Each structure stands twice: as C-alpha cells, then as structure tokens.
Amino acid sequence: MLGRENDNDVEAGPRLPREEEEEDNVDPSDPFDVADTKNASLETLRRWRQAALVLNATRRFRYTLNLKKHEAKIQRLRMIRAHAQVIRAALLFRLAGDRQFVSGKRVAPPSLTGDYAVDLEQLSSMNRDHDTTSLQQFGGVKGLSDLLKTNSEKGIAGDDADLSKRKNAFGSNTYPRKKGRTFWTFLWEAWQDLTLIILIIAAAVSLGLGIKTEGFEEGWYDGGSIALAVLLVIMVTAVSDYRQSLQFQNLNEEKQNIQIGVMRDGRIVKVSIFDIVVGDVIPLRIGDQVPADGVLISGHSLAIDESSMTGESKIVHKDQKSPFLMSGCKVADGVGSMLVTGVGINTEWGLLMASIVDDTGEETPLQVRLNGLATFIGIVGLAVAAAVLTVLLARYFTGYTRNHDGTAQFVKGKTKVDDILDGVVKIVTVAVTIVVVAVPEGLPLAVTLTLAYSMRKMMADKALVRRLSACETMGSATTICSDKTGTLTLNQMTVVEAYVGRKKMDPPDDASQLHHLISSLLIEGIAHNTQGNVYVPKDGGDTEVTGSPTEKAILSWAVKLGMKFDAVRAESTELHVFPFNSEKKRGGVALQMTSSDVHIHWKGAAEIVLASCTKFFDSDGHLQSIDEEKDFFKRAIDDMAARSLRCVAIAYRPFDSDKVPGDDAGLDNWVLPDEDLVLLAVVGIKDPCRPGVKDAVRICTAAGVKVRMVTGDNIQTAKAIALECGILSSNEDATEATVIEGRVFRAYSDKEREQMAKRITVMGRSSPSDKLLLVQALRKCGEVVAVTGDGTNDAPALHEADIGLAMGIQGTEVAKESSDIIILDDNFASVVKVVRWGRSVYANIQKFIQFQLTVNVAALVINVLAAITSGEVPLNAVQLLWVNLIMDTLGALALATEPPTEHLMARTPVGRREPLITNVMWRNLLVQAVYQICVLLVLNYRGVSILQLSNEPREHAVNIKNTMVFNAFVVCQIFNEFNARKPDELNVFSGVTRNYLFIAIIAITIVLQIIIVEFLGKFAKTVKISWSLWLASVGIGIVSWPLAVLGKLIPVPKTPLSKLLRKPITRRRRNASDE
Predict the structure, then answer these.
(1) For residue 858, how many other CB atoms are within 10 A of its CB?
(2) Sign of dihedral through CA atoms 984, 476, 808, 451?
(3) Taking a C-beta distance cutoff of 8 angstroms, is the pair 815, 792 a contact?
(4) CB count, 10 Å around CB of 729?
(5) I need a surface site. Which of 71, 350, 771, 970 has the fewest CB within 10 A?
(6) If residue 376 lies in a helix (H) or strand (E), which one and from where to where?
(7) pLDDT tens per residue, range 910-932
C-alpha cells in the first residue's frame, strides 16, 4: 500500500509499534511531554508554562488557557451559584406563607400597561424568585400566555412587527459581551518582547551618541535604523496577530449561535437562540438546552439538569408544582413545552454570562511540544549570543577589533569614553539581535496561525471546530467509529414497505387496503406517539412534517393514509409519555379516549416490539394469536433489513382505566405496560447511502484509518449498509468477529473486549453505553479514536474519545457540548475532510520548522565563526531583524497556510508521540544549512578577491562584500522557502500557483529586499550592487533547488534520530534501576 512505502514521510513521520512507542517516548520528567491536552490537569498545564523559555509571555500565551482567569472564573461561578441558592432557600419560607392566603383563587391580573398586561419587572421577579404565587395571580400558565398574547399550543404570530414589540417590551435574548481586543492592544503586546525592549534602549543610546559625535544629519542612522527595524517587526507582528484574533472571534460567535426549534403560528421553525422572545412556545426534548427562562406548559417525565446554574449535579423533575425553567440548563429526560418569560440579561444565566469573562484559550499538544522545542533552541541561541558577546568584548578591549583602515578601535588610555560606549553598544546590539533570531518566539505561535487558517477553511468544509486540539489530533486518528443514520446515509427516510397482518401492502400508502379499525388505531398511535408535528397551511399549500427523520417518514406515511393530525390528537388526552429511548429502542404513550377507554401505543425497533406482541390483527380486523405467525414476521423483518431498510413496528394494547394512577405524581412514575401487545404494522424505511460515502471510506482505508460502523439499527440492516458503503468489502468479511451486536460485546469481560475491539467493523443494535465501551477498549489498544454521535446518551463516548464529532443537524445540544468538532452537514465525507485538515496542520508546522531551523543554524554559525575569527559579524542588527521577519512572521504566513493535498491521505496516521523533527527534515535542513554556511563564509573571508574588488577602496570593498553576503543569504531563504513546501517530494512547485498567499509573500520579500539593498543603504548598512552581483546572488540561491533534489536521494534511517540518541540514556537508566 502507498502509505507503507512512505514510512519516512516527513508529514506523517515514521510509524512505530504502539507499545514500544509508549514505553520509549513517555518521559514524566519532561514538562513538555503532554500527549493529550483535552483532559489535562491544571498542574500539568502550569508545569510546561513555567518550564518554557519565553521572551514575550503576553504574546506567547495569548491563545493558551489563562490559568489565573480560569481559576477566578470558577470561583466567581461558585459565588454566584451560592448566592442564588441562598435566595431560593430564603424564599421557601415566604412562599409557604403566601400560599396560606392565596387559597387557590385566581387573583385579578394587573391592569393593562403598554402592549402587554404584564411588565418586564413582574416577569423578572417571578422568574428570579421562582414565585408560584405570582404565576397563580396571573392565572397560571394559561392566564400568563393570554397576558403575553400567546397561544400555548400554536405560539406567537412571529411576524416582524410582533417580534419587534416583544423585544422592545421585554428585551432580546442577548447579553453584553466583552469587546474584542483592538489593534492597539496587539501593538502594545508586541512591544513586550524583552529583546526588542533591549534593542530599543540600545538604539536610543546609539542615537544619542551618534548625534553627539557626528551631528544629527549623519549621526542618527545607526540608532535610528535599529529603532525603525524594531518598529517594523512590531508592526508586522501586531497586524498578523490582529488578523488571527478576528478569525477566532468570528469562529467563537459561530459556536454560540445555536439553532432552536420554536412553535410559531402553529408550525415549528428553526431560529437562532438570539432571536428567542418572551411569549415564544418552545418544545423541549432530551438533550436540548433551555434557551431562556420560562414556565412549563405541559410535559411528561421532564427532568432538567440544572448543574450549569446551581453547581449541583442532581436532576430536577419539572411539573405543574415546579414549573420554572432556567436558561442555560439541559433537558436530561422526557419531553415538554415551555412558555418563555425571560430572555437575555433578564435571566440568571444572562447575568452570569455577562459577569464572567469567557476565556476561549486552550493549548494543543503540538503547541506544548513546540514550546519545548523553542525553549531548547532558545537556550542554544542564548549560549551562542553569550559566546559572541564575550568574544567581541574581549577582542574589542584587547585591541584586536579594527576599523576598515586597519587601526584598532580601542587603545587603552586614548579612546574616548563616548567611543567606548558606542563600541560596546554596537556589540551588545549584535548579541541581542542574535538572541532575537535564535529564540524562535514565533514557532509556537505558528500553530495558532495554521489552526486559525484551518478552522476558517474547515467551516467551508462543513466542520465547526470547538476545541483547537481536535484539529491536530484528527491527523493522528487511526479509527473512526461512525453512526449510520444521517452520517453514512442521506437521512431522507421514506416508508417503502409495510406489513399489516400477514398482508404486504402494495403500494404501502394505499389506505383502501386497510380495515377501518386497524387504520384508526394506526393513525391514533402515530399521531400521538411522536415528538414530530404536521402543519397544514391555511392557504392550502404543501403539508409540512417536522421531527426526526424516522418520525417524519412515519408521519408522512400516515398523512398519505388519511391522517388529520390535529383532529386525531384532539380526540383523546395523553395521560403519560415514555419518550423514545436509545437503550430500550422504543417509545410509548398512554391515551385517555372520549369513551374513557385507555389505549397504550408503542413504536420502535421491529424485532424488539415484536417480541412483546402476543396478538395481531388480520386483514379483516380480527384479533389472532401471533404465536404461529412470529416466524413469518421475523422473516419479513430480516428480508427488509437485508435490503438495508430500517424496520419499525407499531403496536398497541387496551388497558383497564381503573389501573391508571389517579394523581400526577403516580402518573409521572408510572411505568407503561409493554407486554401483551397487539401488532398493528411493521414498516420498512429506506434511507439511501450518501453519494460519495464509498469513496470517502476508501480514502480513509488507504490512509490507514479504519472505519467502523456503530448503529442502533438491526444487525442485518447495518451489515447491508456497510456492504453498500464499502466498510465491508464482501459478505465473506461479515464474520462473527467483525459484525457483532451490542449486547454480545457488552457481555464480554474487559480483557475480551480489548481483544475483540480491533476486529470489530460493524456493531448493530448498539446502545450509547456499548459505543462508550468500544471507544474505551480501542483506546486501551493504542488506537487514536474519533467517534461520531448525535444523542444525549452519546455524550460520554464523545467525551471519552480522542476526537468527539457531533452531528450539527440531528445532534442534541448536550452531544454538541461534549464534542470537539461539529459536523454541520452530518456527512461522513466531511469527517474525512477533517482528517485531511488535521494532517495538514501537522505537515505545515513541520514545513515551517524545517525552514526556520535552516535559517537559525545558518545565521548563528556564520555570525559565531565570523565573530571568533575576525571580530566582526557579517550580518548586522538591522539585517538580522529583517531575516527574523522573513523567518518568523512572513515564513509562518507562507508555509503554515498551505492547503491540504491528496498526498496527505496516501500515508499512515501521524503518531502522537512521533518526533516533530523527522530524519527527513534533519537531512533537508542540514544539506541546505551546510551549503549556505560554506558559500557565505567563503564570501565573507574571500569575497573581496572573488568579487574582484581588490582595486576598490578597502572600506567600499568591505561594504560591497558584506552587502553581497547579506543579499545572498536572504535570496537563499527565498529559494529554500520553496523547498520547505514539499519536504519529501522532488517537485517542490506542485500546487504553488494555487497558493496565492505564498506567492504574494515571496513577491513582497523580493521587492522589500531590493528596496533595502538599493535604496535604504544607510538604514541597513548596505551599498548598491551591480546587476551582475544580483545575478550572482540569485545563482547562489537557485543552487538550493537541485541541491534539495540530490539531498532527497540520500537515504535516512527509519528510527528517529531523537530515539537513537535517547537509547543509550534509556538503557543506562534501566541498568541503574535493575541494580
């Protein structure tokens, strides 16, 4: 396979056996060895920050979690929650007294003021205090809805005028947020770099001395040029950082813009959470976020998780005795509908959000590792700068440093103090500038740059990143556990087959084939046992069906059979609802008929409901025992499942009304009888495979990422879809080990599950807990697991996985909040794009590292050798600052924003602990650095003769030679930037014309270099050079291209260099521990 042929691929890194990798690479003494920041402790995060060598902490840690603010936020939340609990505790006494004299009578509502007969302060007080007395004074929920001009069943009108009135009267569902930082803030933060501050001070001293000794006209150049170069670095840095900030700001706003289903004018519409208004009627189901404060209209087994507000993890049940719902809480169980009574800043959640600063910073594993690399390089750079400083000062004060005319710069007892100070300042300036170049401050920030770019592009690819680290980790994913419905399939369900009794309906929506008794019971059960809705426009337009895809399919089928949704629902009263449960795979409802009869309707997974049936209706409407016919129905179900149809059974049973609990508490705790059922129908629902999903699965397989299907559907349906999608290549692959039911996997021991997990390809009839067990088992086997999920019960698996992928369309808010990335179109092909982007992030960072280290090594070695041997450095402070700008900011922009290529998916996943600098990178950078060092040192020492400048005045000849060294060095970096694009490919120009930013940066660099050399001579200490010397510079630079091709032909060992160097140390440690 192609991936196996590229074991030394720089963008993937060499693959290591998992056990050996973990054993050899984990170093508890290394603060930068943080493989997973998703659930890292605060102590771990604090440890690596303290160990990092940082010149500008404000800038370096800008996008990491602010630990002080995070701890302060937690303390503030605790304080606010504690305060809220005290208020509620005190209210209990007052409310107890209030109830004594209310005596259940309706108190006259307040007089009409404004557009509504209740004002903002009254509602806010009621919501804040959970004041049931005030609610009763308004006439209960019904009376309050009348005062708010709302229909508790159909909602508000929802036209622009109505919405505007409500926002004016009660406020909008927004809260004040901290404004984004201005450009000036970033400019100020860029100033905080210690080395730049030292350079500014040195420039100021040099400026003063120069003006004093040479006058203003000539004396300002030395100090002024350094100051202007520093200002340019600061300005470019601030602009780059500000652009990144705007990108993150836009992405954070997108995360907060939750879409909510609202009942308006009798139909359920999706609106932004910010557009919710007081008076809105909102249906609630498991996993939803309560979008505003409100009161319960109706509900069944409704349980709310109020931990986000109270800090207590207990679940609170809501009913007419406890009807108040708080914004920001989650629906843990049951169904219901609420009337919005408070929005935005007028809710406790709004006050909470407005009073805390939301710190969106977080570190990623790659960011931590790059801080470690930057620290190591920085220490080497500091040592080199200290050596240069020592050598230059020693040479200066011993008289070995000479002017261009050969005279000594320092003569004891003769040189003026100002001249000594000026000489020392110049030496210090060079040493500090070496530190600026040597300490790769921009290296960790390059991760942020490429992540910001990737996240923006991923939005276009229908993926919203909630956690930065997920972008990187996705590049290491070795397996994807995917849902079936809506992810691998289109989620466009239709009923294509139906069995009523022993008869197969043909066509399935022909109502004339049904006995009227069966038809009425079917329609009754479908209309009530649903969380969907059917809206028939008054103007006679098309009927609108809403709900989950399965419910929409069954409701649409019932409409074709003649169901009048609203009329059927009005004929009976719902006593109790058991919402569909992913564990039990079914949902039920108990109905009180007008005749006082009670009907209990069930709907769910066909084989599970069938197992509870004892009778069925034949085609004439007569009850028959199902015992002898169960095999027939099982065969029908298996036949439909084998053709990739989702099978749903609909059943009911009459129930003795005397056995129904008589009070609300009894009804809430009533367990609906689910035995002795009468089978009404079995339907087969077609959900076609998504176009392109087979190709996406094939790409994953070629990339070394195994795709597993984990679905709640029938095992036969799951197998059929897996074959259709290419997850199973043939029927022969569908063995007992690869295709398994959730209950079977669940029954294994932990050790058996670990052994089985890697072999499983399809898991059918799985519950969310089965998915969690599979994720845990795979992770123990060393797999990097990405898992998709949409339900509330998927939250533990999404949280446990290395990368949790929630579905944007079908996913609940609980699932989305537990996820790392939201797939906006629920499409598996988008998951594959996320893998590609994850690999691209890692590859781009490695390209930038290779480019930057080449510049670092070459610049440091050239300056050090020149300083030791001649007492001068060929690259002065201004020139080094310009090189730093090319290397740091412009280099990061050019290389860290390379778009992903198909080449990335032709290799195995990136190991999470594999070295950042691979053997291929070491080879490439050493080849280029050695070439540059050799050529430039030859120019430095023999440049005057090589360039035939012997007849020129010595000072002019030296200036031309130094300019040539500087120019050739910069041109080499421009050409080497192309090499860095494709570290492992011979053709470095592939796709370059599509990367407009790269071309623009190269063009800007060339233009600025020409300007610096030709027009800013006094500023940069350069002189104009002839066109022949320009051609010579280009010739020196262009040699790096064929040299890179030859270098890539040099074989490198598969074992990473870092591991080879660490082996003797590891062996010594083991021997010491054995002794």
Answers:
(1) 25
(2) negative
(3) yes
(4) 14
(5) 71
(6) helix 365-397
(7) 876 777 888 899 999 999 999 99
HEC per residue, 873-923: CCCCHHHHHHHHHHHHHHHHHHHCCCCCCHHHHHCCCCCCCCCCCCHHHHH
How far is C-alpha 280 from the chain's CA centre? 32
The whole-number average pLDDT for the span 538-565 is 89
d(CA 747, CA 743): 6
**Contact yes or no for 360/845 (Cβ under 8 A):** no
CA distance 1069 to 1072: 5
d(CA 904, CA 902): 5
Task: Count the alpha carbons within 13 Å of 418 in the hemisphere toward its beta carbon.
Answer: 9
Structure tokens at 28: 């508890």
* Encoded tokens for 346: 């007028």
Q: What span, in angstroms and rounded, lies between the C-alpha atoms of 844 and 833? A: 16
3-class SS of residue 363: coil
The per-residue pLDDT for 310 is 62
Q: Cα–Cα distances in Å, from 436 out to 194, 242, 254, 737?
A: 9, 21, 37, 59
Local structure of residue 382 (DSSP, 8 states): H
> For every residue of 690-758, which 3-state class applies, written as one string?
CCCHHHHHHHHHHCCCEEEEECCCCHHHHHHHHHHHCCCCCHHHCCCCCEEEHHHHHHCCHHHHHHHHC
Buried residues in 586-625 as b, exposed as e (16+ CB within 10 A): bbbbbbbeeeeebbbbbbbbbbbbbebbebbbeeeeeebe
Nearest of 586, 589, 679 to residue 630 by alpha carbon? 679
**Ramachandran region of residue 445, left (φ > 0), alpha (ψ -120 to 50) or beta?**
alpha
Instruction: Give me the torsion for CA of 102, 105, 107, 109, rounded to 10°.
Output: 130
State residue 760 phi and psi, 5-degree precision.
Answer: -70, 130
What is the per-residue pLDDT across 433-460, written as a single tens digit (0 to 9) for each? 777 777 676 666 677 778 778 888 888 8
Burial 244-261 (b: 16+ CB within 10 A, else e): bbebbeebeeeeeeeebb
φ and ψ at residue 572, rounded to 5 degrees: -145, 165
Can you tell me the distance from the alpha carbon of 298 to that of 963, in angstroms, rounded to the nearest whole number? 82
Minimal CA–CA distance to 541: which of 266, 157, 270, 152? 266
> How far is residue 339's CA from residue 145's CA, in Å, rounded to a whole number?
7
Q: H helices of 643-692, where?
A: 664-668
Identify each DSSP E strand in 566-720 by its residue range: 572-581, 586-593, 598-605, 613-617, 623-625, 645-655, 677-686, 706-710
Please state which of the ranges 361-365, 941-945, 981-985 shows the lowest mean pLDDT.
Answer: 361-365
Instruction: Determine the Cα–Cα distance for residues 846 and 980; give it in Å rounded to an integer.
Output: 9
Peptide bond into 507 cis (omega under 30): yes
- So which residues are the catalytic ones? 483
Cα separation, 549 vs 136, whole angstroms = 39
Banded model confidence at residue 757, pLDDT cuts 50, 70, 90: very high
Between strands 706-710 and 762-764, the pairing is: parallel
Q: What is the pLDDT of residues 850-894, one digit of tens each?
A: 998 898 888 888 888 887 787 777 888 788 888 877 777 788 788
Q: What percent of the chain stands above pLDDT 90?
A: 34
Residue 835 and residue 908: Cα distance in Å, rounded? 12
- Which pair of tokens denotes residue 987? 């053709």
Question: In this structure, which amino acid lies at residue 149?
Answer: K
If pLDDT is split at 50, 70 and 90, which confidence band does 76 have?
low
Question: Which position has the token pair 């059927």?
Answer: 568
- CB-side neighbour CA atoms (13 Å) of 71: 7
- Residue 425 makes CB contacts below 8 A (sequence gap 6+) with 202, 205, 206, 209
